[in-house]
Design a protein that fits this description.
The chain has 375 residues and is of the alpha+beta class. The chain has four helices and 22 strands. The protein has a six-stranded antiparallel β-sheet, with no helix packed on it. Strand 13 and strand 14 form a beta hairpin. Helix 2 packs antiparallel against helix 3. It is elongated and about 145 Å long.
Amino acid sequence: MGHLEHQRPAQAQSRWKLPRFTGTLVLAVVMTAGVAMLLLVLAGVFKPKVPAEPSAAHQATVSDLPLAEVRLIRRPRYESAVGTVRAVHQAVVASRLLAKVVEVKVKAGQAVTRDEVLVRLDDSDLQARLKQAEAALAAARATQERTETDYQRAQRLIGSRAISQAEFDQAASAWRSATAELERAQQTVREAKVVLDYATIRAPITAIVIDKRVEAGDTVGPGQALLTLYDPTRMQMVVTVRESLAQRLTVGQKIPGRLEALKHDCEATVSEIVPEAQAASRSFTVKVTGPCPPGVYSGMFGRIFIPLEDEDVTVIPVAAVFKVGQLDMVDVVVDGTVRRRSVQLGRMLNQDYEVLAGLTAGEKIVVPKGRKEAH
C-alpha cells in the first residue's frame, strides 16, 4: 500500500505536464499564423492590382473617343556589328639617327601642318661633317679647274705637235679624274645635308598628334618611334563581321552606321573587305567610311547595321500606352465597349511601339490626346 501511494503523486504530476506543453505549442502556432496573415494583408495579396474582369469604370461606350487601329507594317530588318573608329592615314614618326633630343615642339592633341617642325635632335657632329664635305668639294673644284685648264692647253699644243701624244693623254686623264672627284665631292655634300636634315623631324602630313613618346634630353636610336599622328579629315570604322553576314556586303555598298558616343547616325560606305577570316572567331574585317561629324576621334566605338530580310511588325501609337504599376496597358474597343488590356512592348519605332503580345492587327484602341508616352 505504501508503494502504491508513493506512485500516485508522480502519475498525477505527469498528467498535468502534458496539457501545459500542448497549450504552449498551440499558442505558438496561432501567433505564427497571425503574423503570416498580417504580412500577406500588408503585401496586398488579397487585393488584386489589376482586376481580372474590367470594372464599370473601365467600360465605356466608344462614341466620340479618338481611336486608332493596331497596324501591321513591313520594315527592313538589320543586324548590328560593332567596330572601332580608325584613321585612314595614320603616321608613326621615327628617328633615323642615334642622337640626343634637343627640343620637342608639340604635345598630344595638338594640330600640326605638313612640314611643321616637331622634334629637333642634336646635330653638332652632322654640322661638322657637312663643313668637311664642303671643304673637300672646294678642293675638288679647284683641282678640276686646274686640270681643265691644262687639258685645254694640251689640246692647242697637240695640234702644233708641241707636245707628245703621251703628254696629251696624261692631261686628259687628269682632267677626267678631277671631274669625277668633283662629282663625288658634290654628292658627299648632298648626303651630308640630307643626314643633317634628319636631325630636324617634320610632320609628314597635316594631322593631329595622338601620342608623344619622347622628351627633351632623351637619347633616341634609328627606327625608334617618337610621335604618332593621324589625319582627322579621313576616318574609317573597322568592324568585325561574322562570316554569314560578311557575305551580304560588297565594296561600295551603302549601309546605316552609328557613333554611339556622339549619337550620330550616318550612311556609311563599305570601302574594304579583308579577304581573310580570323581563325579564332570565324569573322571578317570590314572597313567603312562616311561623313565625319565634329568630335570624332580615333578609337571611338561605333556600329554598322547589315540589312537582312524584311520583317512584319505589329505597332500602336506611343500615346495609346499608359502604366498601371509595372504593367503597360491600353484601352481596347471590344463589342462597342472599352476594355483595359495588358500588352508586352518591344522597340520604339519613330512614334510607335512594337507590340510583342496582347494585341492583333486590326483591333481598335483608344488614343487620348495629350497623353505622354509610357516609357
